[in-house]
Write a structure and sequence with these properties.
GO terms for molecular function: phosphate ion binding. Keywords: Phosphate transport, Signal, Transport. One of its GO terms (cellular component) is ATP-binding cassette (ABC) transporter complex. One of its GO terms (biological process) is phosphate ion transmembrane transport. It holds the Pfam family PBP_like_2. The chain is α/β, with parallel strands linked by helices. The protein folds into two domains: about 1-135 and about 295-300 and about 315-375, 3-Layer(aba) Sandwich (D-Maltodextrin-Binding Protein, domain 2); about 140-285, Periplasmic binding protein-like II (D-Maltodextrin-Binding Protein, domain 2, 3-Layer(aba) Sandwich). Helix content is about 40%, strand content about 20%. It is built from 14 helices and 13 strands. The protein has helices at about 1-20, 20-35, 40-45, 65-80, 95-100, 115-120, 155-165, 175-180, 200-210, 235-245, 280-285, 330-345, 345-350, 360-375; strands at about 55-60, 85-90, 105-110, 130-145, 155, 190-195, 230-235, 250-255, 265, 265-270, 290, 300, 315-325. The strands form three sheets. Strands 1, 2, 3, 4, 6, 7, 8, 9 and 13 form a nine-stranded mixed beta sheet that branches. A hairpin with an 8-residue loop joins strand 11 and strand 12. It is elongated, with a radius of gyration of 20 Å.
């Protein structure tokens, strides 16, 4: 399946990267407009960013989950290092990995660590080396919903699994009503949306369903949606838009996309109280993550069934994927400079304002060491 997926994405990624510069320049233009009247965060960060010998264009693509974080990082970085143009195209984790493995980008963003096949393939583009996973962003995966008259909604893993598998089809279903005794649930059809593109967000969301409700979610977690039925939309912004405009809609998305009035589900866990999707609650959960990568690879294993009070169970970590050695000489200075910045205290401090959580200290310290040793 993974080989078919890579072949299917090959043509897509070629076209996606070809337009990445135009897309990223548009995003950067909007960022620039936002600096009118002064940007204190960018100004404060400017003197702490080491540009070194960085110059020219840096192409990257992948995770749409981290796009809002990358936008904030690029905005601050360009203020300090105007000779570098960073073009990040949020094509999705699967397409981003494919583009990187084809040597089209300096680094990729992915919401899932590389698997063994992808690590083996990376040795073709990383001279005398392989790619490594560098965790940079933590984000809660919010479950957004659009049900008129319902402002607060609690669901558990089993109910979510049945909703996204088409086994619960109406908002006044008995299982939903039992979890929400005070809510006035309408007789309204559920419109469940999933990602149409291959996404690390999908993989992490279904890892949660598989771990927390194995009897109700029988599909293996993958970047591509496995369950039958439902409706689909492209990218995090696409599913968020569908939730906004479709009565009865529900979907999963990074918290930073749950804006403009999108309400989010509180998740029932083994804790006494349902847990809200917040960056603080995601941080409580991510502290239980374990490094399972070897050497300088910092792939993490997450706990999708935390029992601690306030620990939000549906989280993802976005990795920047780069060659440990054998990076292209013309882009290495800019790659190291930018990655050094986003892993720094200043870079990580930008995350909370963008709707994300920083990487725990004990892990980000290892990330900084690995970035400094890239060659």
């Amino acid at each position: 399946m993974k080989l078919q997926r890579k072949n299917r994405l090959r043509a897509l990624s070629l076209g996606a990267v070809a337009v990445s510069s135009a897309l990223a320049l548009t995003a950067c233009g909007s960022d620039e407009a936002g600096t009118e009247g002064g940007d204190s965060s960018a100004a404060a960060t400017k003197s702490n960013i080491d540009c070194g010998d960085a110059k020219g264009q840096l192409q990257a693509s992948g995770s749409s989950a981290q796009k809002n974080a990358v936008d904030a990082w690029i905005k601050a970085y360009r203020t300090a290092c105007p000779e570098v143009q960073i073009n990040y195209n949020p094509t999705g984790s699967g397409a981003g990995i494919t583009a990187f493995l084809q040597g089209q980008t300096a680094f990729a963003g992915s919401d899932s660590a590389l698997d063994s096949e992808e690590i083996a393939e990376s040795k073709k583009v990383c001279t005398d080396s392989q790619a490594v996973d560098l965790p940079m962003v933590v984000g809660p995966i919010a479950v957004g919903f659009n049900v008129t008259g319902v402002d607060t909604l609690t669901l558990d893993a089993a109910t979510l699994a049945k909703i996204f598998d088409g086994k619960i089809t109406n908002w006044n279903d008995e299982a939903i009503a039992k979890l929400n005794p005070d809510a006035k649930l309408p007789d309204l059809k559920i419109q469940a949306f999933h990602r149409s593109d291959e996404s690390g967000t999908t993989e992490n969301f279904t890892k949660y369903l598989k771990a927390a409700a194995p009897k109700d979610w029988t599909y293996e977690p993958e970047k591509a949606w496995q369950a039958k039925g439902g409706q689909s939309a492209n990218g995090s912004s696409g599913v968020a838009q569908q939730v906004q405009q479709t009565p009865g809609a529900i979907s999963y998305m990074e918290l930073s996309y749950a804006t403009d009035g999108i309400k989010t589900v509180d998740i029932k866990t083994e804790a006494a109280e349902p847990v809200k999707a917040t960056t603080e609650n995601a941080t409580k959960s991510i502290t239980e993550a374990k490094v399972v990568g070897t050497g300088k690879d910092l792939a993490l294993e997450l706990n999708y069934t935390p029992s601690a009070e306030g620990a939000y169970p549906i989280t993802l970590v976005t990795y920047e994927i780069v060659c440990e050695k054998g990076n292209k000489a013309e882009t290495l200075p800019a790659t190291k400079s930018f990655l050094n910045y986003i892993a720094s205290e200043d870079g990580q401090a930008q995350l909370s304002d963008a709707g994300y959580a920083p990487i725990p200290d004990e892990i980000i310290t290892k990330v900084r060491e690995t970035v400094s040793s890239l060659s």
